[in-house]
């Protein structure tokens, strides 16, 4: 066995020929220090913070710009470049910057890179949701004596709620699916299984890591579906279903 | 039914309101010409005034300045003597009903919740809102089953009625309507227009209605303000006066070459000077009958008894019956085919006259004889010629 394949301190240490079932369904694999539960917690924590910050930053800006009908051009522009955000490259470029400042490998480089990834879908969906509200509806709301804030919250947001939520869902799933690159940038989280599996040439770890990451991403999507059921009022849900039917 | 809910929160709390525009000008930034230039207009309380004109005449801008969706560059707008600029915009708007072409219902809220929008903002309790919603539903002629539905489940005409109900919810004294019936088909439009008039006869709001449709203005308005490009008021007049005496060439062209025909729609049989025509009571003599026939220049005669019209008799039959020693009562009578009501339009009277063999229609005033309508009478009536 070449040196490079031997686990280094802090890496996942399992026999190379361990069977997938023996490894994955072993209680210790999950509960040991630095095990799956610890890694899961690291990933969930970072992803949650990134998503929440992205919502706090994106939603108000997009909502205000869409409400006042500004930024139509820059939004279109954002759509076209958003497909090409090189998250890994951004994070990698930020690592030396972070080290220079004495902030270490974590958490800023990966946090900023993931945040940039998450901002775009949330911004775009919020902008679209609000600018799609029919002019007549907004006009009528204003003429009936709604304040601008109440037009934004009770009419535009209410009408676009499901589109905004699905933007957040897409962002959250993307963040969860991308977060494992953190393991290649001096961090841990669920990505460690893929990284260490590669490093030790251990397929069991790679497959296990893949399943965990994919599973968490799928679970994230599911949580948002349930969230939509809980937070959206019936009239808004009904509308969202119809919009779905029309675009299907 | 009680329609007056003076609301303490509304400063326009009278049940009726007059609107006065004085020297109102609106210049939009980046536009050389004013959208509305020095417009002064008095709108009587309880009347329907149509702002009529081609696109670019500033009619919608004018309407939107009344509830401050647009602020005038100069000039003042008063409702019942209060300058609207002195009332906070949201408060003002809650006291003014507003109906637009796109209806603008809230698609995520039920019909009941849509209608109750303003009362809810005014802080009414649930019971009062529910009662008011029920009342309005009946008022605009909507089926109560629709209240739990959503806007997209209703037809265009039904949606428009919900829009009107929502606008009237807090019983505002003023109702602004921007091309309210523009998006529905002509049959539904005519029905909604009729319904608006019916509604108005109950609620007596001050209604300002924007339209580019001459027929709509003629049909529903008490007064028409005809605006030219740049918000220039060309003429303010009652529909019939606008047709009869257009102030200038613009008005003449805008209302169209067939304005005389349009006037047939506008004027009712009751507006004609009372004209009995060749009519005699049954007890009259043959001598009187011949005098009337000669005077009217016709070959037929109507017979009445106790103010009830009995029928027509032919002049040619007079001699034979007189020679046989009979009276007017013995003449063979034809019952009139052409009968109109005082509330019929001149157009429908004219149509009946055209197809009748007597060239006259009898006015049936609740079973009593109310005179006759002839083509000559209609011509004279429209010309304002009472000789």
Structure description:
The complex is a heterodimer of chains A (248) and B (387). Chain A has 248 residues and is mainly α. Chain A has a single domain (32-247), classed as MetI-like fold (Orthogonal Bundle), CATH 1.10.3720.10. In chain A, 74% of the residues lie in helices and 0% in strands. Chain A contains 11 helices and no strands. In chain A, helix 4 (72-82) packs across helix 6 (108-131), helix 8 (148-178) packs across helix 11 (234-247) and helix 9 (191-199) runs antiparallel to helix 10 (203-231). The termini of chain A are far apart. Chain B is an alpha/beta fold and 387 residues long. Chain B has 2 domains: 19-257, 3-Layer(aba) Sandwich (Rossmann fold), CATH 3.40.50.300; 270-383, CBS-domain. Chain B has 15 helices and 16 strands. Chain B has helices at 59-66, 89-94, 111-115, 117-121, 126-139, 156-168, 186-203, 214-220, 239-244, 249-255, 259-266, 286-296, 318-323, 346-355, 375-383; strands at residues 19-26, 36-43, 48-52, 74-79, 82-83, 96-100, 174-178, 206-211, 223-228, 232-237, 279-281, 300-305, 308-314, 339-340, 360-365, 368-374. Chain B has a 6-stranded mixed beta sheet with strand order 6-7-8-3-9-10, with helices on both faces. In chain B, strand 4 (74-79) and strand 5 (82-83) form a beta hairpin. In chain B, helix 5 packs across helix 6 (156-168) and helix 11 packs across helix 14 (346-355). Chain B is elongated, with a radius of gyration of 27 Å. The chains are: A mainly alpha (248), B alpha/beta (387). Chain A binds chain B through residues 134-147, 155, 158-159, 233, 235-236, 238-239, 242, and chain B through 67, 69, 90-94, 96, 98, 100-110, 113, 117-118, 121, 150, 152, 163, 166-167, 176.
């Amino acid at each position: 066995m070449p040196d490079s394949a031997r686990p280094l301190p802090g890496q996942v240490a399992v026999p190379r020929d361990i069977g997938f079932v023996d490894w994955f369904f072993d209680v210790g694999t999950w509960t040991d220090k630095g095990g799956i539960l610890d890694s899961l917690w690291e990933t969930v924590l970072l992803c949650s913070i990134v998503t929440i910050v992205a919502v706090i930053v994106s939603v108000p800006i997009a909502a205000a710009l869409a409400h006042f009908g500004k930024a139509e051009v820059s939004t279109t522009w954002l759509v076209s470049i958003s497909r090409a955000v090189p998250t890994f490259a951004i994070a990698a470029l930020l690592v030396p910057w972070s080290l220079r400042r004495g902030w270490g490998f974590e958490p800023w480089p990966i946090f900023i890179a993931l945040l940039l990834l998450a901002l775009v879908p949330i911004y775009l969906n919020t902008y679209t949701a609000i600018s799609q509200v029919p002019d007549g509806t907004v006009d009528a709301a204003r003429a009936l004596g709604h304040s601008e804030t109440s037009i934004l919250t009770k009419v535009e947001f209410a009408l676009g709620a499901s589109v905004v939520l699905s933007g957040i869902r897409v962002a959250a799933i993307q963040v969860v699916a991308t977060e494992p690159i953190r393991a290649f940038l001096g961090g841990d989280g669920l990505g460690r299984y893929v990284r260490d599996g590669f490093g030790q040439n251990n397929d069991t770890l790679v497959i296990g890591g893949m399943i965990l990451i994919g599973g968490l991403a799928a679970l994230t999507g599911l949580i948002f579906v349930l969230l939509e059921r809980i937070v959206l009022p019936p009239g808004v849900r009904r509308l969202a279903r119809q919009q779905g039917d029309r675009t299907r | 039914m009680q329609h007056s809910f003076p609301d303490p929160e509304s400063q326009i709390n009278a049940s009726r309101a007059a609107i006065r525009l004085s020297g109102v000008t609106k210049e939009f930034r980046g536009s050389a010409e004013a959208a509305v230039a020095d417009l002064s207009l008095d709108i009587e309380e309880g009347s329907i005034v149509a702002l009529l004109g081609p696109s670019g005449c500033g009619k919608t801008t004018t309407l939107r300045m009344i509830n401050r969706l647009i602020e005038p560059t100069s000039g003042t707008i008063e409702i019942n003597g209060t300058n609207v600029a002195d009332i906070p915009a949201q408060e003002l708007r809650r006291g003014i009903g507003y109906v637009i072409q796109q209806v603008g219902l809230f698609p995520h809220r039920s019909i009941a919740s849509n209608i109750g929008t303003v009362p809810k903002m005014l802080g009414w309790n649930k019971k009062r809102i529910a009662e008011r919603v029920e009342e309005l539903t009946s008022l605009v002629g909507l089926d109560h089953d629709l209240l739990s539905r959503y806007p997209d489940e209703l037809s265009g005409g039904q949606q428009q009625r919900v829009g009107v109900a929502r606008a009237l919810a807090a019983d505002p004294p003023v109702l602004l309507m921007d091309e309210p019936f523009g998006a529905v088909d002509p049959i539904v439009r005519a029905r909604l227009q009729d319904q608006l008039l019916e509604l108005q006869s109950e609620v007596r709001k001050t209604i300002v209605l924007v339209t580019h449709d001459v027929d709509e203005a003629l049909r529903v308005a008490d007064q028409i303000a005809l605006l030219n490009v740049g918000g220039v008021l060309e003429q303010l007049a009652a529909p019939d006066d606008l047709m009869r005496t257009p102030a200038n060439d613009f008005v003449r062209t805008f209302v169209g070459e067939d304005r005389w025909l349009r006037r047939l729609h506008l004027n009712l049989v009751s507006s004609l000077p009372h004209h009995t025509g060749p009519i005699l009571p049954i007890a009259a003599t043959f001598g009187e009958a011949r005098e009337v026939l000669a005077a009217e220049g016709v070959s037929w005669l109507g017979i009445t008894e106790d103010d009830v019209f009995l029928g027509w008799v032919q002049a040619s039959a007079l001699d034979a019956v007189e020679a046989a020693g009979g009276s007017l009562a013995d003449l063979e009578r034809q019952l009139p085919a052409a009968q109109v009501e005082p509330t019929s339009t001149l157009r429908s009277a004219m149509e009946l006259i055209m197809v009748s063999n007597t060239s006259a229609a009898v006015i049936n005033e609740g079973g009593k004889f109310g005179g006759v309508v002839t083509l000559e009478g209609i011509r004279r009536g429209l010309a304002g010629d009472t000789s």
